[in-house]
Write a structure and sequence with these properties.
Number of helices: 5
Strand order of the largest sheet: 3-4-5-6
Number of strands: 10
Largest sheet: 4 strands, antiparallel
Mean pLDDT: 84
Radius of gyration: 20 Å
Structural class: alpha+beta
CATH architecture: 2-Layer Sandwich
CATH topology: Ribosomal Protein S5, domain 2
Helix content: 25-40%
CATH class: Alpha Beta
Strand content: 25-35%
């Protein structure tokens, strides 16, 4: 079997150029994209041997400022993912986004995890890892800098990221909260 040099076993290498029609088709309507962040296997020792169960952390978003996550647990991987997706869709929240970045610096905290988010200049991209990257991408934030401090437990990092995102306010919103006329 002879393969083209530009393709490996896993398909074409390098970045595929995407035009506006691809992007519109990908993010059109009210379609919600799902991303499986983590699948964890748990085993319980019983009289007959080991009983396995699975948990899945699933993040969903519409690339327009709405994002949510859910934890699903079941005896099968597929059921855990499905349950996590259902929980995530029910718990979706709307976020404050300024263009394609966030309006200001913010720190989110949950348990032992801390996440620092900073707005970035256009063209920077999503500089984040793991759970923060998944949430930012699915929320529609294209330029952001982040640093995960403290715990690296993915579920706690996701909680901390959402805590940070829910603290965001635009200048108009903060003026209104203070009672200043605009």
């Amino acid at each position: 079997m002879i393969q083209d040099q530009s393709q490996g076993r896993r398909g074409p290498r390098g970045r595929r150029s995407r035009d506006a029609s691809d992007m519109d088709a990908e993010h059109s309507g009210s379609d919600i994209e799902e991303y499986i962040l983590r699948i964890n296997r748990c085993s319980k020792v019983v009289k007959g041997g080991r009983r396995l169960s699975f948990s899945a952390v699933v993040v969903v978003g519409d690339h327009k400022g709405r994002v949510g996550f859910g934890l699903g647990k079941a005896n099968e991987v597929a059921d855990a993912i499905r349950k996590g997706g259902e929980v995530a869709r029910k718990r979706m929240v709307s976020l404050t986004i300024a263009g394609d970045t966030i309006p200001h610096d913010v720190i989110g905290r949950f348990s032992g995890a801390e996440v620092l988010l900073r707005p970035a200049a256009p063209g920077t991209g999503v500089i984040a890892g793991g759970g923060v990257r998944a949430i930012m991408s699915l929320a529609g934030v294209r330029n952001v800098l982040s640093k995960s401090l403290g715990s690296n437990n993915k579920l706690n990092v996701v909680y901390a990221t959402l805590d940070a995102l829910q603290q965001l306010r635009t200048k108009e919103q903060s003026d209104r909260l203070r009672g200043l006329a605009s």
